[in-house]
TrEMBL record:
GO molecular function: ATP binding; metal ion binding; nucleoside diphosphate kinase activity
EC number per UniProt: 2.7.4.6
Phylogenetic placement of the source organism: Bacteria, Pseudomonadati, Pseudomonadota, Alphaproteobacteria, Hyphomicrobiales
One Pfam family matching this protein: NDK
Sequence ranges assigned to domain Nucleoside diphosphate kinase-like in this UniProt record: 3-140
KW Magnesium (keyword) present: yes
Cofactor annotation: Mg(2+)
Family label: Belongs to the NDK family.
Localization per Swiss-Prot or TrEMBL: Cytoplasm
Protein name, entry field: Nucleoside diphosphate kinase
Record's subunit section: Homotetramer.
Binding residue positions for ATP: 11, 59, 87, 93, 104, 114
Function: Major role in the synthesis of nucleoside triphosphates other than ATP. The ATP gamma phosphate is transferred to the NDP beta phosphate via a ping-pong mechanism, using a phosphorylated active-site intermediate.
Coiled-coil spans in chain: none
């Protein structure tokens, strides 16, 4: 199995409810290591840039509003098949469809306030990590 890195974000709905530690523990219990982490409050420009791939979608404005409504925790996770493992631990985007024991089933409020984000492919992970972290901030 390949050791890889992926990007993970704990969204404002979760940080407001003081779930950073609980969510990080679920990721670590699944065998992922946090090799970079910081708490940021996204500006509108940062949120629009990060989610630019969704710019033409009808939910873009609401997404940007949600992501700028409070602090987020951005992280780099490392482990065997980290991208797939993180997505498995996160669960389905819609918490009603998420498997028991996943982050979204346990903590998400709704499909729009689903507590976490994670990269879906190696290329996405590389771009998302580079958006928030310099090489010197990733240690592990």
């Amino acid at each position: 199995m390949a050791i890889e890195r992926t990007f993970s974000m704990i969204k404002p709905d979760a940080t407001r409810r003081n779930l950073t530690g609980a969510i990080t523990k679920m990721l670590e219990d699944a065998g992922l290591s946090v090799v970079a982490s910081k708490r940021v409050w996204m500006s509108r420009r940062e949120a629009e840039g990060f989610y630019a791939v969704h710019k033409e979608r009808p939910f873009f404005g609401e997404l940007v509003d949600t992501m700028t409504s409070g602090p987020t925790v951005v992280q780099v996770l490392q482990g065997e098949n980290a991208i797939a493992k993180n997505r498995e631990v996160m669960g389905a985007t819609n918490p009603e469809s998420a498997d028991e024991g996943t982050i979204r089933k346990t903590h998400a409020l709704s499909i729009g306030e689903n507590s976490v984000h994670g990269s879906d492919a190696p290329e996405t992970a590389a771009a998302e990590i580079a958006y928030w972290f310099s090489d010197t901030e990733i240690v592990g």
